[in-house]
Amino acid sequence: IFEEEDLFVDKDTFLMQDDLHPDFWEGGKLKEAVRLRLITIAQDFFDSIGIDAEVKDITFTGSLANYNWSPHSDVDLHLIVDYKDVEADPELAKDYFNAKKSLWNRIHDILIDGYEVEVYVQDENEPHASTGVYSIMKDEWLTEPNRVEPTFDWSDIAKKADGIMDQIERAADIYKDRKYTDALQYIDKLKEKIRKFRKAGLDRAGEFSSENIAFKALRRNNYLEKLSNLKHMAYDKLMSRKSDGLIRIKLSETVKSWKEFLGN
């Protein structure tokens, strides 16, 4: 265990297992019962979002498609689509899919052999850093994992995680001071910084980078959930308080964007 203020992480959960998870894999192939169940979940999710686009593939990735699975793992289920098929601005399409993904994952508690299923819509052109990717539709490995024991710089990981923890606490302090507009702006910038921080690590050294392990440590210790909750609370307080002026939004532009996205 390493400790950095309030952060606790079991190092052993990041080490390599001797085999792929036996509840999911047999003879190097995804068990058929699991594969069919994941296809059904993916189809139900995509039907629920009401988008007329072709699903190019459904992939199983993350630590459960690798040797570094642990009790903290999720079933990372990715639906591969070409964002250009949606006939909308790629950023708008990404935001829409992420919103639908967050809603689905929040209201559903689907477990496969005790592991939570996390659904994600991935752009066909989006690079993916995972060293284990299995095509559920083709029933074959796209990227077969290799069991290579990673090395971790735990001091660097703790330092990186601690830096982000301090910034999350700073966001909480701004909220406590009732500076809700400042809190929202700070939180949005911090969430984008964390996204870029993790991406930089994945691009540089893959899923075992210090940045990605620090991100996982923060997530396991509920700091990322705390940040999201702070954003919701700050927004609710801001919209609930009395105001001397009118709240103005660019309604016509918003309606136009959604019409273009929905094809109406």
Which series of helices and strands comes N to C?
EEEEHEEHEEEEHHHHH
Proportion in β-strands: 15-25%
Name the average pLDDT. 85
Contiguous helical run count: 7
Going across the biggest sheet, name each strand in turn. 7-8-6-5-9-10
Major β-sheet profile: 6 strands, mixed
Rg result: 20 Å
Structural class: alpha+beta
Approximate shape: globular
The total beta strand count reads 10
Contiguous uncertain segments of 5+ residues: none
Which helices and strands, and how do they pair?
Elements: E1 2-4, E2 7-9, E3 25-26, E4 29-30, H1 32-49, E5 57-61, E6 75-81, H2 90-107, E7 111-112, E8 115-123, E9 133-135, E10 140-143, H3 154-176, H4 180-205, H5 210-220, H6 223-240, H7 251-262
Helix pairs in contact: 3-4, 3-5, 3-6, 4-5, 4-6
Report on this model:
The protein is an alpha+beta fold. The chain is built from seven helices and ten strands. The strands form three sheets. Strands 7-8-6-5-9-10 form a six-stranded mixed β-sheet. The protein has a two-stranded antiparallel sheet with strand order 1-2. A hairpin with a 2-residue loop joins strand 3 (25-26) and strand 4. The longest helix is centred in the last third of the chain and has 26 residues, at 180-205.
